[in-house]
Amino acid sequence: MPFDGYPYLVTRIGRTALRHLAVVPADWSRDRLVDLGRRQAGANQLETCLCLGPADAVFVTPDGATRAATFVPTGIAVTDRLVVAGPIPDTAEQATRRAVLRAYIDRQKNRGYLVGDGLEGGRVAEPSEIARLSGPRVDGLPPGLRRCPACDQPRGEDLVLHVLPDLDGPPVVVDVACRCDNHNGCAGCGEPLADHRLSAYAWHAERVEVLYVAAYCGLSHECG
Known about the structure:
The protein has helices at 30-44, 92-108, 127-133; strands at residues 8-12, 18-23, 48-53, 56-60, 66-69, 76-78, 123-124, 145-147, 154-160, 172-176, 200-204, 209-213. The protein is elongated and about 60 Å long. By secondary structure, the protein is α+β, with helices and mostly antiparallel strands.
């Protein structure tokens, strides 16, 4: 069952079952809360939902588009990981609902672990792309990557033989983002939620290879 401490925001973490929940002021108008949802989605660059009641929700995309719905999203709930876009005055009423939310999450008693976040796929490589991206490295980088002139981090395309470990499949081409492409920010301090863009591939200097940055990595951010 969904959490019933309305109103609150739900942030979708990649395509995992993880959902970040945060209570928001109950005495704000609908328009003001929708604007809050837009600012939250815009800062995090993650899909967000404003839940106003069991059959009253507004889904917000990172670019600010909204869609009304008659259901609220559910999943593995977490809280206190993403800062809500402020300023929001704290009240005793909100503190009470936050405590109820934490108790709700504790009762779920989730078990298990996550692998990736459901957005790891690239596109199946064409024979010409396999040839182009399988050549010798240039300055230590795969042939499809070049350093960004602004941040000096590699970006471009790379050939990945296995998107998910231990699974057979055709080679795929993935887009590799540099730090300039990192648009997932904290709604509190404005700093990036992670070292690289979430749900994207990035160059790992120590391992000298491209690695995937799952969306749940952003839940470890702490405001400085």
